[in-house]
Design brief:
Length: about 450
C-alpha cells in the first residue's frame, strides 16, 4: 500500500479497480452495462427526433449526425479502442481531461485504464458530441429517463410526504430518532440509480422503495450515532449535500435538508449538483428545479396539497438564498476527491466554510476512497486520505448503498460472513454504509 498522499489517478493507494479482470464488476459494467446506456441515448434521440415538427430540418439533420457519432462511440467502447483526446468543444474542462489522460493513461483503453477514469470519460465523450452540435448543445439525453422514473415513484413520494409532516412536528426527546429515520430515507433513496439498474420498470422502483422496513439491518457500517452527535451541536450552521441521483433519492435528500433547516441545526444548505449529464441519473440544476416544480404542480392524477406546500417551501428557500445550488466542474472531472484541494481550490475553500458535508451515493463513495481494492477492514478515515486530515476540511459523512466492489470500514470477518449470505452484497444495492469523519476544522 503506497502512501495515500502520493496517490494519483493511475496509482491509487491500493490496486485500482479496472476492467482488466474478467468477472469483476468493473469488467461487467464496461462490457455490458455501459453499451446499454449508450444505446438508450440513441433510443432517446429517436423519440425526440420523431416529435420534432417538419420545419425543424436543421435540428433533425444534426440529430442524425449525433446518432451516428453515439454509435461510433459505442463501437470504440466495445472494441476496446485506445482512449483519445477530448476535442476542444468549447467547454473549458477539455484540457483538464486531456492533461489527466496524457499524464496517467497514455495509450490506455476502456478496459485497461482505471474503471473510474474510463467510466467518467464515457460521460465526457457523450457531452463532447452534444457540445459540438449547434442546436443540441444543452440537450440532456437522460432527462426523459430521470423524469419518468420520478413520475413512477409517485406512490412513494406521496407516502413520504405524509410521513415527513409528522416528523417535522416531533418533540425534543424524539429528535435523535427522527434524524436517524430521515438519514435512512435519504440513504436508501440511493438504491434506485439508473446507471446500475439499466432496465428498471415502474414496479421494480416501487418494490425498492418499500423494501426498507429493515432499514438499519442492511447497513454494514453504521455511523448514525457519531453523525447525530455532530449534528446536535450545530446551530444555524451551513451544511452541504454533494448530491447523487435525481428523482426519489433527491426527494428524500430534500426532506432531510428541510428538516435540518426547520430544526435550526442549519440556516444555510448548499447543494452540489452536476454541471453536465452524468451517470444517467445524477442531479443537474435543471433536474433539481424540475423536481420542485413538478411537486408544486402536483402529479397528474393526485393533486396532493401537502406535497405542494412542501415543495413551495423549498422553492421559497431557493428564492431567499437559504438553499443554494452549485455545480462545480470538479464533480464531473476524472479526479478522486483526494485532489479537491489541488484541482479545485475554490471548491475546497467553500466546502471549508461548511460544518458538515454529506456525500450521497456510490460514485461519490468511489471517489472518496479512490476506487481501489482496500482491505474491507481499512478504517474509513484512512481510506479518505487527505479529507480526514487536511486543515480546514469539515466533518463529512457518506450515505451509500453498495453498488461497486469497493468497501472500507467493516469489522474483521464481516466481509467473509457476507460472502456466505449473498455473493453480490458489494454490488446489488441491497446493503449500505453510513460512514463519518469529524474532519480537521
Ligand atoms: O454502472 C454502475 C455504476 O456505475 C456503479 O458502479 C456506480 O458507482 C453507480 O453505477 C452509480 O451509482 P450512484 O448513482 O449511487 O453513484
Ligand atoms: Mg448517480
Amino acid at each position: 500500500m503506497s502512501s495515500t498522499l502520493q496517490a494519483d489517478p493511475a496509482n491509487p493507494p491500493c490496486e485500482p479497480l479496472s476492467g482488466v479482470n474478467p468477472g469483476t464488476f468493473a469488467y461487467t459494467t464496461i462490457k455490458d452495462r455501459l453499451p446499454v446506456i449508450v444505446t438508450k441515448i440513441v433510443d432517446d434521440l429517436y423519440r425526440t427526433y420523431n416529435a420534432l415538427p417538419d420545419e425543424s430540418k436543421e435540428k433533425k439533420t444534426e440529430a442524425k449526425g449525433i446518432i451516428s457519432e453515439i454509435g461510433e462511440l459505442r463501437y470504440e467502447l466495445q472494441r476496446d479502442r485506445e482512449l483519445r483526446d477530448i476535442v476542444d468543444d468549447g467547454d473549458a474542462d477539455f484540457s483538464v481531461w486531456n492533461d489527466c489522460l496524457h499524464t496517467y493513461f497514455d495509450g490506455k483503453t476502456w478496459f485497461s485504464a482505471t474503471w473510474l477514469f474510463a467510466e467518467c470519460y464515457l460521460y465526457r465523450r457523450i457531452r463532447e458530441i452534444f457540445n459540438l452540435s449547434k442546436l443540441w448543445k444543452n440537450y440532456d439525453p437522460f432527462t426523459r429517463q430521470k423524469e419518468s422514473t420520478f413520475m413512477a415513484s409517485r406512490t412513494a413520494v406521496i407516502e413520504l410526504t405524509k410521513r415527513a409532516e409528522s416528523l417535522f412536528q416531533v418533540s425534543e426527546n424524539l429528535l435523535e430518532g427522527t434524524f436517524h429515520e430521515l438519514v435512512l430515507i435519504s440513504l436508501w433513496g440511493n438504491q434506485t440509480d439508473l446507471s446500475l439498474f439499466v432496465n428498471l420498470q415502474a414496479e421494480d422502483i416501487e418494490k425498492l422503495q418499500k423494501a426498507n422496513e429493515d432499514a438499519e439491518k442492511y447497513v454494514l457500517a453504521n455511523a448514525l450515532e457519531p453523525l447525530w452527535n455532530k449534528v446536535k451541536t450545530l446551530k444555524d450552521a451551513r451544511i452541504d449535500f454533494v448530491l447523487d441521483n435525481a428523482g426519489f433519492e433527491l426527494f428524500g435528500d430534500l426532506i432531510l435538508a428541510d428538516w435540518l433547516i426547520h430544526k435550526k441545526y442549519a440556516s444555510k444548505i448548499h447543494f452540489h449538483c452536476k454541471a453536465d449529464p452524468w451517470f444517467v441519473s445524477d442531479t443537474t440544476e435543471m433536474d433539481f428545479m424540475w423536481t420542485i416544480q413538478t411537486c408544486i404542480n402536483g402529479f397528474a392524477e393526485s393533486q396532493d396539497e401537502r406535497l405542494k406546500t412542501l415543495a413551495q417551501r423549498w422553492a421559497d428557500y431557493i428564492q431567499s438564498g437559504i438553499w443554494e445550488l452549485n455545480s462545480h466542474k470538479f464533480w464531473t472531472s476524472p479526479y478522486a476527491f483526494y485532489h479537491i484541494e489541488t484541482q479545485a481550490p475554490d471548491l475546497y475553500d467553500t466546502l471549508s466554510k461548511s460544518s458538515l458535508v454529506i456525500f450521497k451515493g456510490d460514485l461519490n463513495y468511489r471517489k472518496l476512497v479512490y476506487d481501489c481494492a482496500w482491505p474491507s477492514v481499512t478504517p474509513f478515515k484512512t481510506a479518505i486520505g487527505p479529507l480526514a486530515t487536511s486543515t480546514g476540511f469539515p466533518a463529512l459523512c457518506a450515505l451509500r448503498t453498495n453498488k461497486s466492489d469497493v468497501i472500507v470500514g467493516l469489522k474483521e470477518g464481516q466481509a467473509e460472513e457476507l460472502d456466505g449470505v449473498a455473493s453480490d452484497w458489494m454490488v446489488s444495492g441491497q446493503y449500505a454504509v453510513i460512514q463519518f469523519s469529524e474532519g480537521n476544522q
